[in-house]
Amino acid sequence: MTSTAQPAVPEGRKAHPDHLGHVIFITAAAAMGGFLFGYDSSVINGAVEAIRHRYDVGSAGLAQVIAIALIGCAIGAATAGRIADRIGRIRVMQIASVLFTVSAIGSALPFAIWDLAIWRVVGGFAIGMASVIGPAYIAEVAPPAYRGRLGSFQQGAIVIGIAISQLVNWGILNLADGDQRGKLAGLEAWQWMLGVMVVPAVLYGLLSFAIPESPRFLISVGRRDKAKEVLAEVEGTSVDLDVRVDEIEQAMRREHKSTFKDLLGSRAGFLPIVWVGIGLSVFQQLVGINVAFYYSSTLWQSVGINPESSFFYSFTTSIINIIGTVIAMVFVDKIGRRPLALIGSAGMAVALALEAWAFASKTAAGTLPSTEGTVALIAAHFFVLFFALSWGVVVWVFLGEMFPNKIRAAALGVAASAQWIANWAITASFPSLSDWNLSGTYVIYMIFALLSIPFVLKFVKETKGKALEEMG
């Protein structure tokens, strides 16, 4: 097993206390992309059944409408890194903000099912961009001593976005007297659910004008003096700014703009470190976490729970998601990324096994016996808890830290793209798999949770406490 002992962080790299509050503001503003990522990803949960009835589509067709956004996510994730290297991190955030806004309006006012699908692809592109630019920007502006905790802001924002979307959905459903197609001011309830995202989308765009560009990007385009100003903002004037800029500049001289070709190895296609990043991204999705956020309302209704209660349970799992993320944020820099990943894998495997056992008792009438129903609900919450305190946070932290400077942007884009493709596979297959065998579906997710343990032990190296320039 790889040692988790890390070199001490030089004093000059520790954030000055007077500047830490400002660094937190910058990080939180950038993480608004993560909030929208979570909000847009999960808000569809409240509209699934209404869309099914409004457009009279079956499970397979409905799954494609839900999952098609993830194709946009994969494209956005694959291209965001290269775009950011050309025009800057802040400009990419602003483009994503516009796409989120347009998608929210279009999704709330579709003419037909194909129209809704197009707007979901547009929103997916924005989510993919946000999934890459958030962790990359935060890793580049955060002082090494705080980078793990600040990096976890991205996942923290994602889970808050998920929870707020479920709370908004639940509130709108109650205003519509429990009817997802109930009329509110001329629109159906599900349309309001999808349209409310305009508010945080616009806020994200406004916040992007209040934060500085990444010092690494500024140096890459020759704006050395501006880079010093940004470094003074985030690390304090007690740091020797010339030394810090020289350090970054020297590291950048040994590299060039990352491209897809730079990720290729001699034998196995990609370089080994890129395969590790892809593996982390794929395992994060193959445990079935997004079933809990895209289909939970439908899932609980399929085993006999009424719509109001199913929406409420979607909200409570989102709260558990936040609690788990806070736990991870507290411990990610204390005990390291790898230990958290291993703890989470074990906990998820047990919770998924219990869910599989409970769903095996589903009756012909489509309900669960009292005991099994209680176990299913508790296990579902524990599954989300163990995911949130581990893989939900550490994968994003790893992806922001683990790659050498010369391939970071391109490698992060490929890994995030792989994550969205895996997410699409799980999302598109769940309705058909659950129709086949709901219990068997959860057994499959449990197997992937178990397989992630040897993967981490053998291939994943700890990054806690290391400067980005040390990655190689």
Question: Topology, please?
Answer:
Layout: H1 17-30, H2 32-42, H3 48-55, H4 59-87, H5 89-108, H6 113-141, H7 147-175, E1 183-184, E2 187-188, H8 189-195, H9 198-208, H10 215-220, H11 224-235, H12 241-253, H13 272-286, H14 291-294, H15 296-302, H16 307-331, H17 337-359, H18 370-388, H19 391-401, H20 408-459
Antiparallel strand pairs: 1-2
Helix pairs in contact: 1-6, 1-7, 2-6, 2-7, 2-9, 4-5, 4-6, 4-20, 5-6, 5-8, 5-9, 6-7, 6-19, 6-20, 7-8, 7-16, 7-19, 11-12, 13-19, 13-20, 15-16, 16-18, 17-18, 17-19, 17-20
Rg from alpha-carbon coordinates: 22 Å
Arithmetic mean pLDDT? 84
Largest sheet: 2 strands, antiparallel
Strands, total number: 2
Helical element count?
20
CATH level-4 homologous superfamily: MFS general substrate transporter like domains
Oligomer: single chain
Query: Can you tell me the CATH architecture?
Result: Up-down Bundle
Helical proportion? Answer: over 70%
Question: What is the N-to-C succession of helices and strands?
Answer: HHHHHHHEEHHHHHHHHHHHHH
Name the beta content range: under 5%
CATH class: Mainly Alpha
Shape: globular
Structural class: mainly alpha
Which strand order spans the largest sheet, edge to edge or round the barrel? 1-2
CATH topology: Growth Hormone, Chain: A
